[in-house]
C-alpha cells in the first residue's frame, strides 16, 4: 500500500485546523492511485507531515495515542493532482501582464490550486525572480499551498512566439546565437531552475516560427 501518498484533502484540512504532529484521517473511501479498487472505511496516518500508512482501517493495528482523529465519512481521499504544464503569476482575472507577477499573486494562485486538489505545479517559462523565493520557502518547511517547480524564463527566437502574445513581451529569453543560449543557461543553473523550457512552435501557424537549429538549441 502506498506509504507517501499525496492527499489532496489534506491541504484543506491543514488550512482550517493547522498542522498537528500526528493525525488519523478515518472512514473515507481511499483511492490510492495504484489501480486497485477504492478502499472503503480507510485510515490514513500522518506523522510530522509524512504519510506513514494508507489503507484499510483494520490494517492499522495500533493507532498512535494522542493522535488527532478526523472523521471523513462520506468523503474521498485521492492522490494529489499534478499540473505538469502551467503558467503562474502573470494574470489577474483574464488580463495577462508581467506586472502581476508578485509574491502575493503567486501564493494566491498556488493556494487556489491546493484548494482544488492540485498539490504540485510546474510553471513553464514565464516566471520572474520572486518565484525562487517562494520555491525556496516551500522547500525549507512544510508548504501550505501547491508545490511549485519552475523553468523560470523559457527560450524563444528573436521576436518569436510567445513574445508577440499579450503580456509576454520581454518574458522569455530571446536568443539567436549559441553564446546567448549558453549565457542564459548559466543563469538558469545559478538559480537552480528545475527544468528548461523552449518554445519551438508557430502557435498553429499564426505567429513567427521559433525553431532554433541544433547548434543553438544544445543546452544540455
Explain how this protein is built.
The protein has 220 residues and is α/β, with parallel strands linked by helices. Helix content is 23%, strand content 24%. The protein has five helices and 13 strands. The protein has helices at residues 8-17, 103-115, 130-139, 178-191, 214-217; strands spanning 22-26, 29-30, 42-47, 50-56, 68-71, 76-77, 81-86, 91-92, 95-96, 118-123, 147-150, 155-157, 173-175. The protein has a four-stranded mixed β-sheet, with no helix packed on it. A three-stranded parallel β-sheet has the order 7-10-11. The longest helix is centred in the last third of the chain and has 14 residues, at 178-191. Residues 1-20 and 213-220 have low confidence and may be disordered.
Structural class: alpha/beta
**What about the largest sheet?**
4 strands, mixed
Q: What's the order of the H and E elements?
A: HEEEEEEEEEHEHEEEHH
Number of strands: 13
Low-confidence stretches: 1-20, 213-220
Strand order within the widest sheet? Answer: 4-3-1-5
Beta-strand fraction estimate: 15-25%
Shape: elongated
Structural Rg: 21 Å
Give the mean pLDDT: 86
N/C terminus separation: 37 Å
Q: Count the DSSP helices.
A: 5
Report helical residue fraction.
Answer: 10-25%
